[in-house]
Automatic annotation (TrEMBL):
Residues 129-280 form the AB hydrolase-1 domain. InterPro entries: AB_hydrolase_1, AB_hydrolase_fold. Keywords: Membrane, Transmembrane, Transmembrane helix. The keyword Endoplasmic reticulum does not apply. The chain crosses the membrane at residues 12-32. This is AB hydrolase-1 domain-containing protein. The keyword Transmembrane helix applies.
């Protein structure tokens, strides 16, 4: 075979390979326009990540006996959400003997359990409603260390309530944007009406996909009459909206899905028409801030992101922060003007990152950018504990004593 024939053969097979790859990618794009496939890609709810452990035995995840109470919460449309009520370590220590004596496993009536009574009957108790990200369950990955970080500031008072959205883990149903918002509202209603915890003693915490649910729920409750505003809302590794996330997202931080198409605005904008669950967090956070400012409600919003987050790039957070700040200013403020203000007011923490706070007469909007922390590891960091304590202390300075 001559050199020319070899080159021709190479280009022939290379062309075939490229055509196959392009064909497969086009097929993937076609499948992504269907609601079923898109739901699985967005929520990853079929990926359990706890296949070899029983969620009804939380001790296998490193908890003390009966430190966690598994139970369920019913939504307004009839779904059952699997949930964990997690006792803080010091409170558990004080009541260890009667807690150990109780039966273990899933509880059909949580109000009969000591752990629930320690939450309901203590006027000093605080509750964090935890909304996790896509994929997995309440027991997956870095979520367990996250629960410990959340209660670490006051291990005798801070309870954690975490749950799996519909279609995740042991929860019934199929995930959707409207469905997950109903799930969040159902858990908040349980906390206020069943556990009897007032909003001033509740903090909403969301990570990754959970940030979209958290801010949507916080906004809806702030807009109702009378408004409901919590001690704080903490968002870790948030995203602006689904379309912007799709334009930057890479599986495992390396494999792009739609990001190559972002270079072709007309095509990418056309494909956005097929996004079913839009999760417009930028709009929701703006409406949340405007509602609180208009109602003279005290609020605290904290947004945290790590620069080395390869799942959701950290530059989503400055955009979300700007939408929040812009909503707090009657005349508005441009993104560039806010960046200039950051040059004057931002606190440089060196290797720990930076902090910018925007204060109004009613609230505090805080942006924390860490140098390291990735997408999930950050959830066990002290910065999470500090965000919780700032929120609760802002409502009641005596809480830190």
């Amino acid at each position: 075979m001559t050199a020319g024939e070899t080159a021709a053969s190479f280009f022939k097979y290379a062309s075939i390979s490229i055509a196959v790859v392009v064909g497969l990618y086009a097929t993937l794009l076609g499948l992504l326009t269907t609601s079923t496939v898109q739901s699985h890609v967005v929520y990853l709810h079929a990926i359990q990540m706890t296949w070899f452990k029983d969620l009804n035995v939380p001790e296998t995840f490193g908890f003390l006996k009966n430190q966690v109470t598994p139970f369920s919460i019913k939504t307004s449309d009839g779904e059952r959400l699997y949930a964990w009520h997690i006792l803080p370590a010091e409170l558990y220590r004080r009541h260890e003997q009667p807690l150990v004596a109780e039966p273990v496993g899933f509880v059909s009536d949580i109000t009969s359990r000591l752990a629930f009574q320690l939450l309901r009957d203590n006027p000093e108790a605080r509750l964090i409603i935890h909304m996790h990200g896509a994929a997995g369950t309440v027991g997956s990955g870095y979520r367990v260390p996250n629960y410990r970080a959340l209660s670490a500031g006051q291990p005798g008072k801070i309870h954690v309530l975490t749950f799996d959205y519909r279609g995740f883990g042991r929860s019934t149903g199929t995930p959707s944007e409207s469905g997950l918002i109903l799930d969040g509202l159902a858990v908040v209603e349980w906390a206020m009406n069943v556990a009897g915890i007032p909003p001033s003693r509740i903090l909403i915490f969301g990570q990754s996909m959970g940030t979209a649910v958290s801010i949507a729920v916080s906004k809806q409750l702030a807009l109702q009459s009378p408004p409901v505003v919590f001690a704080g809302t903490v968002l870790v590794a948030p995203f602006v909206d689904t379309a912007r996330l799709a334009s930057t997202y890479r599986v495992a931080g390396t494999i792009p899905i739609l990001s190559p198409l972002a270079r072709f605005p007309l095509l990418f904008n056309y494909l956005q028409c097929f996004i079913w669950d839009k999760w417009l967090s930028k709009d929701n956070v703006a409406q949340y801030i405007r509602a609180n400012e208009a109602n003279d409600e005290k609020y605290r919003l904290t947004i945290i992101h790590a620069e080395d987050d390869y799942d959701i790039p950290w530059h989503h957070t400055p955009i979300l922060f700007w939408h929040a700040v812009n909503a707090s200013v009657p005349a508005g403020i441009s993104y560039n003007d806010l960046e200039l203000r950051k040059l004057e007011s931002k606190v440089d923490l060196g290797a720990a990152g930076s902090v910018m706070e925007w204060r109004t007469d009613n609230g505090v909007i805080r942006e924390e950018i860490l140098k390291t922390g990735l997408h999930d590891v950050i959830m066990g960091y002290p910065v999470i504990t500090m965000a919780v304590m700032r929120s609760f202390a802002a409502v009641d300075p005596a809480f830190t004593c």
